[in-house]
Design a protein that fits this description.
This protein is of the alpha/beta class. Among the domains are: 188 residues, 4-Layer Sandwich (Metallo-beta-lactamase, Chain A); 123 residues, 3-Layer(aba) Sandwich (Rossmann fold), CATH 3.40.50. It contains 11 helices and 17 strands. Helix 3 crosses helix 4 and helix 6 runs parallel beside helix 11. It binds a DNA duplex through helix 10. Keywords: DNA damage, DNA recombination, DNA repair, Endonuclease, Exonuclease, Hydrolase, Nuclease, Nucleus.
Length: 447
DNA sequence: GCGATCAGCT
DNA sequence: CACAGCTGATCGC
């Protein structure tokens, strides 16, 4: 593929069309650049369109092209080198990562490429089976020349149950602590289904910070406003920003009232026991790990390495972590590879703690398995910067990822008052983004 | 003084 | 460790 044609999750310019897979900050770098968006047409899901102004208030929506899951669009591009016209058809496939997340399948004069973005692929769930069918329908007889794969958890040891199973485990934990306050660490987008499940199962509202409530309403997940609230006295279960979820904060909250924390995450090292962490940091050992019993969930229905019958690992006192992941685990990646059978595969996650070239595990599922690394495009030239992720060899420690360059200017909320002065910049950001650590503590201590 | 970007951290 | 994100420092306007 020639250079300068299309970019996915990269918005620094130089392309003729731009594609956003989902609205997490590390995928939107460059979108908030000064002067608004004017590099070219910007394709994303209708859900993402709806949320876009909350993340990028100044964005010029005339350049935004909503692409519904399953829908296609034709792109008329021109070769930057020869000026000849190029025809490319793009199809959006649900990625099931967070609300509005999409994969993009490109086919046309440049061959066939599939960019998954971040995705989950739980084929025990209807949504994933429908997504798989949508992908197969879109592919038809075509073969994917290059698959850009979410390799976040691309290691055979990283298997976890489908999200509904883990959601039920979380309900069990909360039920086992009837007199505790509960905080759950979440990001600005994602894990809505988990919170909905908890709310329905326990018949309990869930506190979220004001900006998160706005997101819920824009997503339409709580149309009757029965589930989520910003009023602290209505519930003992709170979803807090992931960065408020620290041992220090949990201990502080416990001085006010008994509180447990639950971190839903697929990150494997969070499953380690607290002793490991204490020793590794030279701190005195923590108290012994408390164990929690879970109801068995139909024994072998999960068929993964993670054993749902064993208690979830506790990484610190009063804090639990459960493998609720919005990224595909290894067995799902394997199934995806078997379904797509690409000629070659390239990982898109370069900052992973254990970046693994997916070819290492899936070479045998690639059409070009007998060849070493080669240019992934057909005979049309080298691959584009834009569609080539930051690649690095196996077993190399990743460098620190450059930070996001987005400038989220959220609408203001009144809850942001805090007596803790840090800096004007911090205060400004605080105003913009809604509740933070201190707000959460204040709010809970008042309750 | 302000926003954008970078460095550092979890 | 960093899924995605927050904070403070610095730079240019």
């Amino acid at each position: 593929m020639d250079e300068g044609l299309v970019s996915v999750d990269k918005f620094s310019g130089g392309s003729q069309a731009y594609f956003l897979t989902h609205l997490h900050q590390d995928h939107t770098r460059g979108l908030g650049a000064a002067g608004g968006w004017r590099h070219g047409p910007l394709y994303c899901s209708p859900t993402t369109v709806r949320l876009l102004p909350t993340r990028f208030p100044g964005i010029d929506t005339s350049l935004v092209r909503p692409l519904a899951p399953g829908a296609s669009a034709s792109l008329s591009l021109s070769s930057p080198t020869s000026d000849r016209p190029l025809s490319v058809r793009v199809t959006a496939i649900p990625a099931l990562h967070c609300p509005g997340s999409l994969m993009y399948l490109f086919r046309g004069d440049l061959g066939c490429m599939l960019y998954t973005g971040d995705f989950r692929w739980e084929l025990g769930c209807d949504k994933a089976r429908r997504a798989k069918q949508a992908l197969l329908d879109a592919l038809g007889e075509d073969t994917v020349d290059v698959l850009y794969l979410d390799n976040t958890y691309c290691h055979p040891s990283l298997n976890f149950p489908p999200r509904p199973v883990v959601a039920e485990q979380m309900v069990d934990i909360i039920r086992a602590h009837p007199d505790h306050e509960v905080i759950i660490g979440v990001d600005t987008l994602g894990k809505e289904d988990l919170l909905l499940h908890i709310s329905r199962a326990l018949q309990m509202k869930i506190w979220v910070w004001p900006q998160r409530l706005q997101t819920m309403h824009l997503l339409g997940v709580d149309e009757n406003q029965e589930i989520f609230t910003t009023q602290t006295n209505l519930t003992r279960v709170r979803a807090v920003p992931r960065y408020s979820f620290t041992i220090e904060n949990l201990e502080a909250l416990n001085t006010v009232c008994p509180t447990i924390g639950i971190m839903p995450s697929g990150i494997p090292w969070l499953w380690k026991s607290c002793e490991d962490r204490a020793e590794s940091k030279g701190r005195p050992p923590r108290p012994p790990v408390k164990s929690i019993r879970f109801k068995g969930r139909n024994g072998g229905t999960i068929g993964m390495d993670y054993d749902p019958l064993s208690p979830p690992k506790l990484f610190e006192k009063d804090a639990y972590t459960l493998p609720y992941s919005e990224h595909a685990c290894f067995s799902e990646l394997k199934d995806f590879m078997q379904t797509v059978k690409p000629s070659t595969v390239i990982g898109i996650v370069s900052s992973s703690f254990c970046y693994v070239n997916p070819r290492h595990h899936f070479r045998h599922l690639c059409g070009d398995n007998d060849q070493a690394e080669r240019s992934p495009a057909k005979s049309k030239g080298g691959d584009t910067d834009s569609l080539t992720p930051k690649r690095r060899p196996d077993n190399l420690t990743p460098k620190r990822r450059p930070n996001g360059s987005t400038s989220p200017k959220e609408r203001k909320f009144s809850i942001s008052s805090s007596s803790l002065y840090r800096s004007k910049v911090a205060m400004k950001r605080k105003e913009c983004c809604g509740a933070r650590i201190v707000d959460t503590e204040e709010v809970i201590s008042v309750a």
